[in-house]
């Protein structure tokens, strides 16, 4: 594994040097600041990529690298310097101001990693006594895998067919909130928690990595995320794949195995992206047609009313002109942007390409807030009071004029509501205060605490590194996509807690009660 990390680090160094050089001349601020920013972010990323790092540390540093250096550099090299979701185009003149808090936060994360490794090194300890559920699974492996497949197919179909939870859309259905929250937890946490237990049980107890079980794990993620129209599939699957590198000693034909995993992930990613983008665009078009028809009907009513009034008043024939709704197509292009040229029509392919650069969060939101003169603790505490409101922009979008071009329009259709929230990320939210010391201490503390949570996950799951990888990825992704209705984060923490309880029971319960009903000897 060390050789793999060395190869990746060597590739990253070459990649960073080439694109920093290409971005050097196109940077619109002080080139010295850009070079320092590039060096610190890339050195931090390279430092994070080694086998002694926790999953959280590797995943979060990857998202930091993508959201800060990668997004900015690729934007100035390939997108004419337009940094998507950073507010008005004039904000780019403040890019050097955005580098400073970004570097402060990254240094805080670096210190957190170093101190965690020194004082809380990971110790892998296995409990050789089988839990009740491990015994049940090993005795009924084929049946349980079959039932698991049936279950996640039914849940995913139910979610897609009845639109329980889909990214970028809200649904005014009459389904109980309890049911919708349970389905969301099952799709986002429950299924993968259970599949990680199945796969790890085979690895730990049978000393083998079953190709069939691995396929089931990856297919579950693919089906679940596709039903949610989520394009984050590749990140979740990559996190699961990386956890398997911890078991290299029992994997036969390592190169073929991981080449197959890589091919599987890329194939599923392409299918998932095309599928998700196809339905997202179709749903948006459906909403657009509905709005257009409603506007036409409303306009016709006004014409008839006006004509009746004039006829009653003895007036002559009046020429009427209906409104022109041709521009509605452009509005849809804004909501599903695939280019910094708003006239480019979205399709599943160019939307995927645009997402590769602009999906990440970091330097864009930092640029948006440092371009404002409203930063302070009052603003920070005000942001914590934000509530989820369907027909309004988010606190971040409205406060920092992120929707300056009207691209965040909320569109109400007959069956669904199109609402995509722009998120600032945890680092930017903490810098709402404008205070560098608060930013440093807060970022350090948050990362340190969640790093300890990963160690806790390992302890309660009999060192299940597949589960720890999954949970740590969800935390890293949540932190990098933080910022909408922060007070509701307790729901996410409850979801994490539910997964921890589930894996603890599956891994440790000895069946003092159920042994009376099941023969597990």
Can you give a write-up of this model?
The protein is mostly helical. It has 19 helices and three strands. Strand 2 and strand 3 form a beta hairpin. Helix 1 runs parallel beside helix 3 (55-78), helix 2 runs antiparallel to helix 3 and helix 2 runs parallel beside helix 4. 36% of the residues are buried.
Keywords:
521 residues; mainly alpha; globular
Helix run count: 19
Which class best fits the helix and strand makeup? mainly alpha
Which sheet architecture does the biggest sheet show?
3 strands, antiparallel
Radius of gyration: 26 Å
Oligomer: single chain
Helicity level: 55-70%
What percent of residues are in strands?
Answer: under 5%
| SSE series | HHHHHHEHHHHHHHHHEEHHHH
Average pLDDT: 87
* Measured distance between first and last alpha carbons: 38 Å
The shape, in one word, is globular
Low-confidence stretches: 315-323, 325-336
Major sheet strand order: 1-3-2
Number of strands: 3
List the helices and strands and how they pair.
Elements: H1 2-24, H2 31-48, H3 55-78, H4 95-119, H5 132-139, H6 141-162, E1 169-170, H7 177-206, H8 211-227, H9 233-244, H10 254-312, H11 328-335, H12 348-358, H13 363-370, H14 377-383, H15 395-399, E2 411-412, E3 417-418, H16 426-430, H17 436-460, H18 465-480, H19 489-508
Helix pairs in contact: 1-2, 1-3, 2-3, 2-4, 3-4, 3-18, 4-13, 4-17, 6-7, 6-8, 7-8, 7-18, 7-19, 8-9, 8-10, 9-10, 9-18, 10-11, 10-12, 17-18
């Amino acid at each position: 594994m060390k050789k793999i990390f060395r190869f990746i680090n060597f590739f990253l160094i070459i990649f960073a040097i080439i694109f920093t050089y290409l971005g050097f001349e196109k940077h619109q601020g002080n080139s010295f600041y850009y070079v320092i920013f590039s060096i610190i972010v890339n050195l931090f990323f390279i430092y994070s990529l080694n086998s002694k790092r926790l999953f959280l540390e590797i995943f979060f540093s990857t998202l930091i690298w993508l959201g800060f250096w990668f997004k900015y550099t690729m934007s100035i090299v390939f997108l004419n310097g337009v940094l998507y979701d950073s507010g008005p185009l004039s904000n780019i003149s403040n890019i050097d101001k955005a580098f400073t808090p970004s570097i402060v936060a990254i240094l805080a994360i670096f210190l957190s990693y170093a101190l965690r490794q020194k004082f809380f090194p990971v110790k892998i300890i296995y409990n050789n006594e089988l839990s009740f559920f491990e015994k049940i699974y090993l005795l009924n492996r084929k049946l349980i895998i079959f039932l698991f497949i049936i279950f996640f197919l039914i849940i995913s179909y139910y979610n897609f067919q009845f639109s329980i939870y889909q990214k970028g859309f809200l649904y005014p259905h009459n389904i109980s909130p309890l049911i919708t929250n349970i389905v969301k937890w099952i799709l986002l946490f429950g299924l993968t928690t259970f599949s990680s237990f199945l796969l790890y049980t085979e690895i730990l107890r049978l000393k083998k990595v079953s190709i069939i079980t691995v396929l089931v794990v990856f297919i579950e993620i693919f089906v679940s995320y596709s039903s949610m129209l989520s394009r984050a599939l590749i990140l979740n699957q990559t996190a699961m794949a990386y956890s398997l590198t911890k078991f290299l000693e029992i994997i036969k034909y390592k190169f073929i195995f991981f080449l197959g995993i890589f091919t599987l992930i890329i194939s599923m990613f392409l299918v998932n992206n095309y599928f998700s983008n196809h339905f997202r665009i179709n749903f948006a078009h459906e909403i657009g047609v509905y709005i257009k028809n409603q506007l036409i009907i409303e306009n016709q009513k006004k014409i008839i009313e006006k004509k009746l009034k004039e006829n009653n008043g003895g007036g002559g024939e009046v020429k009427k002109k209906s409104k022109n709704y041709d521009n509605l197509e452009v509005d849809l292009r804004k909501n599903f942007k695939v280019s910094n040229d708003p006239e480019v029509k979205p399709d599943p392919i160019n939307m995927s390409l645009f997402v590769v650069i602009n999906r990440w969060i970091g330097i864009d939101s930092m640029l948006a807030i440092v371009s404002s003169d409203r930063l302070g603790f009052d603003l920070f505490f005000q942001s914590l009071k934000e509530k989820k409101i369907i027909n309004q922009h988010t606190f971040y979008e409205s406060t920092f004029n992120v929707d300056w071009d009207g691209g965040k329009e909320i569109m109400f259709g007959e069956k669904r509501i199109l609402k995509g929230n722009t998120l600032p990320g945890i680092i930017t939210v903490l810098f709402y205060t404008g205070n560098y010391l608060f930013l440093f201490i807060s970022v350090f503390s948050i990362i340190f605490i969640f790093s300890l949570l990963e160690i806790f996950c390992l302890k309660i799951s009999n060192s299940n590194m597949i589960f720890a990888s999954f949970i740590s990825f969800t935390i890293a992704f949540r932190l990098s996509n933080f910022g909408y209705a922060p007070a509701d984060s307790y729901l996410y923490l409850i979801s994490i807690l539910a997964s921890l309880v589930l894996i603890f029971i599956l891994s440790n319960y000895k069946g003092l009660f159920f042994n009376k009903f099941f023969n597990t000897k």
